[in-house]
Amino acid sequence: TCRENRIGFNRIHDLGKKVLCDMGGIYLLGIQPGTRLYNNYAYNISCNQYGGWGYYTDEGSSHIVIENNICHDCSCEGFHQHFGRENQVRHNIAVFNAHHGVALSRGNSHPRGYVFPGQNFSHNYNFHQNVVVVDNKPFFTIAAKEIATPEQLFCDMNFYFDISGKSKKNFALIDTWNANKKMITFKEWRETFGHDIYTKYGDPGFMDLEKRDFRLKKDSPLRKINFPDPAETIKQAGVRKKKS
């Protein structure tokens, strides 16, 4: 049994070294109710051919809360779910990851033992109240259209920003594992799937994106929506000096 684990305040960086594949700054696997991943800081996760993610919920990962984490400059996406169910991903920051902001790879047509026939459950991936920043990259890559349906994905109340100003037109890449893959706009994302109706789009107001300083400016719009201050993670994640 794997459950109710606490993974918090770790500073994880420079893993993979462009040698390893199929990995993440923090890797999760299997059903583990009550497990919480919080206030971690991951960056510079680099793979050889594929799979250099910040936070990776792999095969069957279920009932996990992922919150208040930061990831940037990973060689793939900041967040990736292979397949799983009822994971909560909220109040996280993903910035300038190389491919896209978020990757979702399989849906309900690929159960593989993490759900029993006839069993009902609510959404595979719940992605809400997160901040995703890209530079002329799509915010999402979705392997099959079914994964993005409102029955399988809940996605809303996020804060998106593309410093190039182009990703509203190239918002999400759908059906990437099929020959008919398609890029859709932010408007199509909303109208087709009903996602991100209450999401905001614009500069989140970090101190200095170029220098990867994710502290909030005094006038940051994230303060107005009560987004948890990332300063706690920035200051406390990683090895700390022992108090004398």
Structure description:
The chain has 244 residues and is mostly beta strands. It has one domain. 7% of the residues lie in helices and 36% in strands. The chain has helices at residues 186-193, 221-224, 231-236; strands spanning 6-8, 11-13, 23-28, 31-38, 41-43, 52-57, 61-67, 70-72, 79-81, 84-85, 87-90, 93-95, 102-104, 125-128, 131-134, 140-142, 153-156, 159-162, 172-174, 182-184, 200-201, 206-208, 213-216. The strands form four sheets. Strands 1, 4, 7, 10, 11, 14 and 17 form a seven-stranded parallel beta sheet that branches. A seven-stranded parallel beta sheet has the order 2-5-8-12-15-18-21, with no helix packed on it. A seven-stranded mixed beta sheet has the order 3-6-9-13-16-19-20. It is globular and about 60 Å long. The model has no long low-confidence stretch (mean pLDDT 91).
